[in-house]
């Protein structure tokens, strides 16, 4: 397992010139954890689905004493990302899901060897993206594991939604991660990984008029008191420049706003073309419904080839995206693999 100096190949302080993100020949994004698992989804031009027949478990109610099992779904997100440049491949994890064992269970059922990952990138500190670290570290027997985060990932947060009990979110512990064998790397600025083939955006500037962030009941503990936390400033995304095709953008929740994220990726790389958008877009719930129409309209102007939103995108936004992108939109599901190849 590489240490932190191997994992982050280049630290970037963006000054306006494009960062030296090297084009890749192929990217494969396997969704290890999403809110749903649908064993009846069909393959598409870029996406293969996990159905049944790969994994089984003992069950005495069936002839032969076993039954087939699919994958687990939960309110969380995790992706395995593999990039190839020539004959060289690198694999990393982007987020780890909610529960300690969901991600590793799904990886086992998919036949994915998590020992091959070079490190972990956390999109932000919310527990539905970080909870699977415990199961991963158990699997790896506490071997040294690079984990790249924004410095605000340790922020204590809570929700005070009307009509609901106050809920303090589990807060990630830097000390605990270090004790468990993680080599924690804190970067506010962008970082290049995988021999400069993968860009992590770092902190994303908020520039659009309509992406206003979290509602007032999402709060952070700052300077000894609870305050509205609209920005979730630790939110960051993963970006790859697919040779001859354009940018592939992977989000966790997209708290920065998906258009803010895409625009930032374009500024950082100097590449205008958006080829694919995968991951959570956080457009679910009444607080975000006014954002759906302008988001879909702005994305439509970019004409991506693949749109695979999941996790916190919300059913109304999914419906709008499916309508706007009849050829590009695909539903997300645990076990889906999106394979994109350069031109």
TrEMBL record:
Gene3D superfamilies, per database record: Ribonuclease Z/Hydroxyacylglutathione hydrolase-like
Domain of life of the source: Bacteria
InterPro entries for the chain: DHPS-like_MBL-fold, Metallo-B-lactamas, Metallo-beta-lactamase_dom, RibonucZ/Hydroxyglut_hydro
Coiled coil region boundaries: none
SUPFAM superfamilies cross-referenced by the UniProt entry: Metallo-hydrolase/oxidoreductase (SSF56281)
Metallo-beta-lactamase domain residues: 78-140
The protein's name in its UniProt record: MBL fold metallo-hydrolase
Source lineage: Bacteria, Bacillati, Actinomycetota, Actinomycetes, Pseudonocardiales
């Amino acid at each position: 397992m590489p240490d932190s100096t191997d994992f982050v190949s280049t630290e970037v302080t963006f000054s306006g010139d494009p960062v030296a993100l090297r084009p890749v020949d192929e990217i494969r994004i396997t969704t290890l954890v999403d809110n749903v698992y649908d064993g009846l989804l069909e393959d598409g031009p870029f996406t293969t689905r996990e159905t049944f027949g790969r994994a089984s478990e003992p069950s005495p109610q069936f002839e032969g004493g076993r039954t087939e099992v699919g994958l687990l779904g939960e309110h969380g997100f995790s992706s395995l990302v593999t990039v190839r440049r020539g004959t060289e491949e690198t694999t990393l994890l982007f987020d780890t899901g909610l529960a300690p064992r969901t991600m590793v269970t799904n990886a086992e059922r998919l036949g994915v060897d998590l020992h091959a990952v070079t490190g972990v990138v956390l999109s932000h500190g919310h527990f539905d993206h970080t909870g699977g670290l415990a199961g991963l570290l158990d699997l790896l027997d506490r071997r040294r594991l690079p984990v790249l985060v924004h410095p605000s990932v340790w922020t204590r947060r809570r929700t005070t939604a009307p009509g609901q009990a106050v809920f303090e979110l589990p807060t990630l512990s830097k000390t605990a991660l270090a004790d468990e064998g993680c080599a924690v790397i804190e970067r506010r600025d962008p970082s290049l990984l995988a021999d400069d083939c993968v860009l992590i955006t770092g902190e994303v500037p908020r520039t659009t008029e309509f992406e206003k962030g979290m509602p007032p009941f999402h709060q952070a503990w700052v300077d000894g008191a609870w305050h509205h936390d609209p920005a979730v400033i630790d939110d960051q995304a993963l970006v790859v420049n697919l040779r001859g095709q354009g940018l592939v953008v992977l989000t966790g929740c997209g708290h920065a706003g998906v258009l803010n994220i895409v625009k930032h990726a374009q500024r950082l790389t100097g590449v205008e073309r958006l080829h694919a958008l995968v991951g959570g877009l956080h457009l679910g719930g009444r607080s975000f419904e006014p954002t759906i129409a302008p988001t879909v309209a702005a994305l439509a102007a970019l004409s991506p080839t693949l749109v695979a939103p999941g996790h916190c995108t919300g059913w109304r936004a999914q419906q709008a995206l499916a309508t706007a992108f009849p050829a590009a939109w695909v539903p997300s599901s645990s076990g889906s693999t999106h394979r994109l190849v350069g031109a």
